[in-house]
Amino acid sequence: MSKSLLYPKDQKLSIALGELTICWGWLETGIDELITEMAELDNEKVAHCVTARVGDIRSKVKLAKALGFICKTDEGWFRELLKVLDKVDNDLRPRRNDFVHTHWIHPKGRLTRRHRRTKLVKPQAFQMELITQQDIPEKLSSIYKLNSEISDCWMNLMVLYWYIMREDGERLTQPPLSFQQYLRALKSAQRRQRASQARKPRQRSSRKK
User: Which candidate among 22, 24, 71, 144 keeps its CA 20 to 30 Å from the CA of 33?
Assistant: First the structure.
């Protein structure tokens, strides 16, 4: 039986990266669901064929932007859609790739990301130098921070999705609430739910005598 390549120090790292993988899967699925709703792909198998064929997440982001422009019923919704998708493509995706596609090492016991690349630089005047790798110290908290941001972004995608969901197969050309009013209504409902939960009496745990 083959041994694991992980060192004991990598156990906490593997948990953080495993959570990152799961969060990213949720995020990409959220974009797939949004594409499916905007393109009105009612057949589940057809929807899966389309989103799988699009391939990488950058292509899905471009497709989602185009579909959003076509089916938008509220300018505020479309602006928020572009903002969230730009966050995914220009911020979350590069950071996720940096964490996933790298070599993790522990020089002097410190968690470090070894990033290999070829780049010509001039550290001193008139002296060119070739860099082939770069060691970047990291903290597990940086990975968990990214996981949290990905989760928040997924939630924002779901809110965008809920706003344009069709009723009885038809999309409303004029929603009863603007997107901003819809957001305020959601926040108000969340506050009422938290207040209701806070008022519930706590049950005391019974102890066996």
Answer: 144
Average pLDDT over residues 90-106: 94
Band of residue 6 on the pLDDT scale cut at 50, 70, 90: low
Residue 207 has a pLDDT of 53
User: 19: how many CB neighbours lie within 10 A of its CB?
Assistant: 17
Separation of alpha carbons 147 and 92, rounded Å = 9
| CA gap 104, 204 in Å, rounded | 46
Structure tokens at 60: 């899905």
For 98, the token pair is 């940096």
Average pLDDT over residues 79-89: 97
Report residue 186 as tokens: 């959601």
**Sign of the C-alpha dihedral computed for residues 97, 142, 111 and 137 taken in this order:** positive
What amino acid is encoded at 123 in this protein?
P
